[in-house]
Amino acid sequence: MWVSLALLLLGLVTALVAPRLLARADWVEREPVVALWVWQCVVAAVLMSFALSMTISAAAAWQAVRGQVFAGAPRAVVEAYELSTHGPWSAVLAVVLAAGGLWTGAMLGREIGTARARRRRRRCELLERAPLLPGEEPGGERLVVLEGERAHAWWLPGTTPRLVITTAALQRLKGRQLDAVLAHEQGHARARHDWLLHCSGALAGGFPGIPVFAAFRAEMHRLVELAADDVASRRFGRLTIALALVGLNEDRGVFGPGPAPDAHLPQRVHRLLTAAPRLTAGHRLRLTATAALVPVFPVLVAFVPGLAALG
Questions:
Q1: Where are the alpha helices (DSSP H) in the chain?
Q2: Is 225 strand, coil or helix?
Q3: Which residues partner with 163 through β-bridges?
Q4: DSSP category for residue 146
Q5: How far, in Å, CA of 123 to CA of 211, rounded?
Q6: Theoretical Cys-Cys bridge with 228: which of 79, 111, 187, 273, CB 3.0 to 4.6 Å?
C-alpha cells in the first residue's frame, strides 16, 4: 500500500523541488548541455514515478494485472507488497494515472504530427521560393538560400536537415560571422534538438496546469540555443557569434526598450561577451552521473519490498 503512495509522493516532490533547484543553480548557463541532460533526467524521474505508482496500484486493484506484473515472482515477494490491504482507491489511482499516460502519448503524437505537417508545408514553400536547378535531386540540398529583405537563418529538421539563410543575411554577415551562424544551426541539427522541443511541448501542452512541464518547455527552448551558441563559439570564438547574433537581429527591436520578439537574445549575447569560467571536467562528470541516478530512485522505491523479501 505504501509503495504506490510513496512513488506518487516522490514524483510530486521531484516535480516541485527540482525546477527550483535548477533555477537557483549558477552553472546552468555555463553548461547548457549538462543542464539539458539534467532536465531530461528530472522529467523522466517524474514520469517513471507516476508510471510505477500506476502499475502497483493496478496490480492491487485487479488480479489479472497482478498476475502479469508478478508473474514468476516468489510468494514472499508478492506478500511483501501487501496488495490485499489496498483499498478501493487503488483502482481510482490506477485509472487516473493510466489516463494521464494515454493523454501524454496522445499529446506527443499530436505534437509530432503537427511538426511534420509544418515541416512539409515549409519545405513546399522553400521549393516554391528556391526551385531546384536542372540535375538537382529533391531533398539532397543541405543549404538553401532564399531571396529576402530580412536577415534570417534557421534550420529545418527532418531526415535530411536543411540550413536556410536569406540573401539579406548573406549581405549583412561576412566571413567568420556567417560561418559562425551556420555552425550554430548545424549544432541544432546534429544534436536533434527538435525532439527535445517536441517532447517538452507535448508535456506542457497536455498538462498546462503542471509547472514542471511548463518550466521544462521554457528551459528547452532557452538551453538548446545556448548549446548551439557554444558549438559555434568553440569553432569561431565567442565574440564572432555574439556579433553575428547582433547583426542578424539588430533591426527587430530585440536590443531596444519594450517587449522583444526574442527575450532571451540579449541575455545570450551578454553571456557570450562576459563568459564565466566553465566547470571542470570532473565537476561536469559528477553532475551528469548524479542526474543519471535521479530516475533510478523511483525504481529503487518500487523494488524495496521485493528485495527485502528476497533478502
A1: 2-24, 32-61, 63-69, 75-80, 89-129, 167-172, 176-191, 193-206, 211-236, 238-249, 265-273, 281-293, 296-310
A2: helix
A3: 143, 155
A4: E
A5: 34
A6: 187
Q: Which amino acid is at 222?
A: R
The answer to whether the beta carbons of residues 157 and 194 sit under 8 Å apart is: yes
β-pairing verdict for 162-166 and 153-156: antiparallel
Spatial separation of the C-alpha atoms in residues 22 and 216, rounded to whole Å: 11
User: What is the Cα 305 distance to its own chain's centre?
Assistant: 33
Ramachandran region of residue 218, left (φ > 0), alpha (ψ -120 to 50) or beta?
A: alpha
pLDDT in tens, the chain (311 residues): 578 888 999 999 999 999 999 999 989 999 999 999 999 999 999 999 999 999 888 888 888 877 787 777 778 777 777 777 666 778 888 899 899 999 999 998 998 898 889 888 887 877 777 665 555 555 555 778 888 888 888 888 877 778 888 888 888 888 899 999 999 998 998 898 989 999 999 999 888 878 999 999 999 999 999 999 999 999 999 999 999 998 888 776 655 444 444 567 888 888 998 877 888 889 999 999 999 999 999 998 888 887 776 66
Query: For residue 97, with 0-12 CB atoms within 10 Å meaning exposed, 13-18 middle and 19 or more buried, which class applies?
Result: buried
Task: List the grid coordinates of 66.
Answer: 497482478
CA distances from 56 to 32, 35, 65, 297 (A): 36, 32, 9, 16
Pairing of strands 143-146, 153-156: unpaired
Nearest alpha-carbon partner for 123 in 157, 150, 153, 165:
157
Q: What is the pTM of this model?
A: 0.86
